[in-house]
Amino acid sequence: MSASSPPFAFADGGPERLMRVDGLAWRDRDVLARMTTGPWLRSPAGRPGLGALGVLVDNVLGRAIMGQGQDAPWSVSLEIGIDLVGRLPLDGSVLSAVGVAQERDARGGLATAEVRDASGAVVALARQRGFSVPRPTEPPGGLETGPAVDVSSDDLLALLGGRLQRGTAGAVLVMEADPRVTNPLGNLHGGISLCAVEQVAAACLDGPPSPLHPVSVQVTYVRPVPSGAQVAFTAQALHRGRSVGLVHVVGAVAGGPPCVVGTVVAQAG
């Protein structure tokens, strides 16, 4: 069966434009979307950032949990996890994601996804648990409309507009939840939060004795980051060896309670 557009096309807001995500559509039980790659997805260390997949997978996973119904509630992420199983390209090729609900009821659900490169090889696996909230009011022009976004950037941190600080105890990434990175509920997009968690963890592990690169990121969303807020993602290495690293990340607004809690696993190679 050919792909078809969902009743509400949420995948054209600021975060989607920023990360070059488009093509959200249904195919039977599956939700499809794609993302164009490029050098802007490179971390400051020079490698593709696993967190760059956050917006792509959040779109297909969240939509799969919501379902196709015109009156289906909106899904808010409780947790998202992404595991790298291949190599992410930076060459302008297109990645495709397919998400499917494994469990869904009135409270929310669980969905899984695969991300494939242009050759069809799986490069990442993802999962999301979400819970249902009332659907946001659709503004004139539709929720699919979003702000104009300047996507020119040298790397992923610059694309996010984040300010990175490294220290002996870890690293901190500070960014603003401006309209470029917020969802239709007016909060920081879950995929953008995941990207920030992965990037600050990568910065925390960057350096001797050997380069370590994130291969798994798991994020739990405990409270929203409202539009306009300054959020600081603080990373602390729980383990830093020659071949494996483990980083704990907490995102909070102005020194308040945690909004986002993440765990990142990194490996050499």
Model description:
- The protein has 269 residues and is mainly beta.
- It has one domain (14-268): Hotdog Thioesterase (Thiol Ester Dehydrase, Chain A, Roll), CATH 3.10.129.
- The chain is built from four helices and twelve strands; from the N terminus they run H-E-E-H-E-E-E-E-H-E-E-H-E-E-E-E.
- It has helices at 14-18, 54-66, 156-160, 190-205; strands at residues 21-27, 30-36, 74-84, 94-105, 108-116, 122-133, 163-167, 170-176, 212-221, 230-240, 244-253, 258-268.
- The protein has a twelve-stranded antiparallel β-sheet with strand order 1-2-4-5-6-3-9-12-11-10-8-7.
- Helix 2 runs antiparallel to helix 4 (190-205).
- The chain is globular and about 55 Å long.
- The N and C termini lie far apart (40 Å).
- Mean pLDDT is 87; it is low at 5-9 and 139-146.
Short description:
The chain is mostly beta strands and 269 residues long.
CATH topology: Thiol Ester Dehydrase, Chain A
Instruction: Provide the CATH superfamily.
Output: Hotdog Thioesterase
Mean pLDDT: 87
User: Biggest sheet: strands, sense, closure?
Assistant: 12 strands, antiparallel
Please report the first level of CATH classification, the CATH class. Alpha Beta
Topology (elements, then pairings):
Blueprint: H1 14-18, E1 21-27, E2 30-36, H2 54-66, E3 74-84, E4 94-105, E5 108-116, E6 122-133, H3 156-160, E7 163-167, E8 170-176, H4 190-205, E9 212-221, E10 230-240, E11 244-253, E12 258-268
Helix pairs in contact: 2-4
Supply the key terms.
single chain, twelve-stranded antiparallel β-sheet, Thiol Ester Dehydrase, Chain A, 269 residues, mainly beta, 42% strand
